[in-house]
Amino acid sequence: MIHCSDWADCHRLCERPMSIDHISAVTFAVADMARAVAFYQACGFELIYGGPGADFTSLRAGQGFVNLILQKDYPPNWWGRAIFRVASADEQHRQLITAGLKPDAAPQDAPWGERYFHITDPDGHELSFAELLPPRRAADS
């Protein structure tokens, strides 16, 4: 085991720099599990553990997971956003509208090369669904 006195010391001692492959899961506190599970399933997440009556629920999001943990006194509070890659932001937006959800705005193109939109879950967690746009040619700028 390597013991380090600070980050720089630890970095020098490691044989190779640490690498992070991807985010495996994001866990959100929710005040009402049944309401949260219904919301995330309507967004297209697949329930794999727990459910409406559980204290802990896990839903699949592509190769990652969204976990929900019941905190009955959790006050809705914006803290940032989780961003999920989708094949088509417009199609995802249409599916959410069809499911009776209310995205914060219509999809829009961003200068950093994504088409995206946001939706806020019932506990105040902001989700973004983003599609990677094809690279722009210099003549297109």
Structural write-up:
With 141 residues, the chain is of the alpha/beta class. The protein has a single domain (23-140), classed as 2,3-Dihydroxybiphenyl 1,2-Dioxygenase, domain 1 (Roll), CATH 3.10.180. The protein is 19% helix and 31% strand. A hairpin with a 4-residue loop joins strand 6 (108-109) and strand 7 (114-120). The protein is globular and about 50 Å long. The relative contact order is 0.17.
- CATH superfamily membership: 2,3-Dihydroxybiphenyl 1,2-Dioxygenase, domain 1
Using the coordinates shown, work out and report the CATH topology: 2,3-Dihydroxybiphenyl 1,2-Dioxygenase, domain 1
CATH class: Alpha Beta
Structural class: alpha/beta
The separation of the N and C termini measures 52 Å
CATH architecture: Roll
Strand ordering within the main sheet: 1-4-3-2
Total helical elements: 3
What attributes characterize this protein structure?
2,3-Dihydroxybiphenyl 1,2-Dioxygenase, domain 1, 141 residues, alpha/beta, four-stranded mixed β-sheet
Brief write-up:
With 141 residues, this protein is an alpha/beta fold. The chain has a single domain (23-140), classed as Roll (2,3-Dihydroxybiphenyl 1,2-Dioxygenase, domain 1), CATH 3.10.180.
What is this structure's SSE topology?
Layout: H1 7-13, E1 25-30, H2 33-42, E2 46-49, E3 56-61, E4 64-70, E5 81-85, H3 89-98, E6 108-109, E7 114-120, E8 126-132
Parallel strand pairs: 1-4, 5-8
Antiparallel strand pairs: 2-3, 3-4, 6-7, 7-8
